[in-house]
Amino acid sequence: MQELTSAQCVIFDFDGPLCRLFARRPAPLIAGRLRTTYQHALPDAAAHETTDPLRLLTLAFGTSLPGEAARAAERSTARARNHATARAMERSLTEEEIAAAVGAFPTPYADTLVRTLCATGRTVAAATDNAAAAVERYLSGRGLLGLFAGRVCGRTLDRDGPRLKPDPDCVERALHACGAAPADAVMIGDSARDVLAARAAGVAFIGYARNERKERELRDGGAETLATSLRDVLLTVDPLAHV
């Protein structure tokens, strides 16, 4: 993992590399609650098929008026109303993610890896499509928040909706928070969207493939360096680690 040995900044995706966020509060159940509460903002048939809360959020922001005969002022008013509802959905999703963070399962070796990276002079950051508040709640419970202080970069909203991966926004904000150039950083992620976001930001990438499905997804997304356990990553950082 040559990408890691020279990196001064290590950027983690959150759900996957650091923990299983929805281990006790499954994402499909959260999606179901959001769908029930905000169904008036989800006319797209795809909204009734997806079990991904983030997909529902993007659908809510993508809602448009049916028909093209409406006057411009009417379209503008309805668009603002739809976006207000979508932003309310985003706040509800944030609350769900914070609640999920309380019962999230730590990824094996993740805590030790983070502490070892910091002990060896590296800076760590998080770049995620989840809410920063949920990440901070989880890290606080693990005694890790201070190691990520000021470098938790969760999803943001602009006037068009959430900026989610493969948009490199959160990765670029993590780089800025670390004061690092892309060439001095590496990202650890577990999805094809992570691969693309890292590539767009010019950051090297290590894929965390905890099962065969994730390995296929990462390889199909273009990841070249994979680890099936963070133990391998930890031993690259500290070959003498007692793990």
Automatic annotation (TrEMBL):
Pfam families for the chain: Hydrolase
Organism: Streptomyces tubbatahanensis
SUPFAM superfamilies referenced in this protein's UniProt entry, alphabetically: HAD-like (SSF56784)
Signal peptide: none
Stated name of the protein: HAD hydrolase-like protein
InterPro entries: HAD-like_hydrolase_sf (IPR050155), HAD-like_sf (IPR036412), HAD_sf (IPR023214)
